[in-house]
Design brief:
With 289 residues, the chain is mainly α. It contains nine helices and no strands. The radius of gyration is 29 Å and the shape is elongated. It starts with 6 loop residues before the first helix and ends with a helix.
């Protein structure tokens, strides 16, 4: 037999059901608002990142075009070997950029393409700076390091070496070139040695290119590191190898210039050299972390 309830009990039960329904609706609406808020935040962040990316690319692209035009219109016959290296690096970047434009590279390469464009522009900029003999405005420049934790994450010793290299860069320091080049070259060498040990590279790539002493070449180490990052594109590997080679060529120019007939470099030129090498360290460090 069904249980009989009074009218007041019925109304009370109805109110309870209505309250539960209202609470459920409110909770649902609250969850919807939270979800929509997260979606909007994600969209806003994506749009901000896209705007920042486009702005950065436009800045690097225009700077690269400007610096390459300066080189094309320059009558300077100094630093012929380094000039060839800069042109070669630019050609590597053009090939890499063409692969990106054709859709051959996925989004994993976007960040590194930005850095690659910056590296190429830096190489041309430093050559233009070394070939320029005009007056300088030293108030605009600083020789403080802009590295954050890139080298510390790899080796405290390498971070200290770089700080020592930057400290040595002074137009009044007659030993600036030797100190800077020795320390900075060691930084690049040791990054590859620490992050791509010979035995590991050979075990992962048994048929890799080796030196006459049976050690993996720099290109082989770079290939190993890029594979560890999931970056398998051969043209990108060619660019990275050429970029490191360009910086090593710059060390030779710096050494020859300081001890040769051209005399010491001025403050602007030292800053340009420091920027080229420092950004190169950042680029390589991003590939090995």
């Amino acid at each position: 037999m069904a249980k009989r309830i009074s009218l007041s009990q019925y109304k009370s039960k109805l109110r309870q059901l209505q309250n539960k329904q209202k609470q459920a609706i409110n909770k649902y609406n609250q969850e919807v608002r939270k979800y929509n808020q997260k979606v909007n935040q994600a969209i806003n962040k994506y749009n901000q990142d896209v705007r920042a990316h486009n702005s950065r690319v436009r800045a690097n692209r225009q700077r690269l075009i400007t610096e390459m035009n300066k080189l094309a219109n320059s009558n300077s016959t100094r630093h012929v070997v380094y000039h060839r290296s800069v042109v070669s690096l630019n050609n590597r970047y053009v090939n890499l950029d063409s692969r990106s434009e054709s859709g051959s590279l996925d989004s994993n390469y976007d960040y590194y393409l930005d850095l690659s464009e910056k590296e190429t522009a830096n190489s041309a900029e430093v050559l233009n700076s070394l070939s320029h003999t005009g007056d300088e405005d030293s108030n605009v420049y600083s020789l403080t390091s802009t590295l954050n934790d890139e080298l510390i994450a790899i080796s405290i010793d390498l971070d200290n070496r770089w700080k020592g290299a930057v400290f040595s860069l002074n137009p009044k320091n007659p030993d600036a070139a030797r100190h800077f080049c020795t320390s900075a070259r060691e930084v690049f060498t040791q990054i590859l040695e620490i992050k791509a040990p010979d035995n590991t590279v050979i075990s992962q790539i048994p048929n890799c290119d080796t030196t006459e002493y049976g050690k993996p070449t720099r290109r082989a180490k770079i290939k190993y590191l890029l594979h560890q990052k999931g970056l398998f594109d051969e043209e990108f590997g060619n660019f990275v190898d050429e970029d490191v080679n360009n910086i090593l060529e710059l060390f030779r120019v710096f050494n020859d210039g300081t001890h040769g007939s051209s005399g010491t470099y001025n403050f602007q030129q030292l800053v340009s050299i420091k920027k080229r090498v420092e950004d190169g360290i950042i680029f390589l460090s991003n590939l090995v972390q």
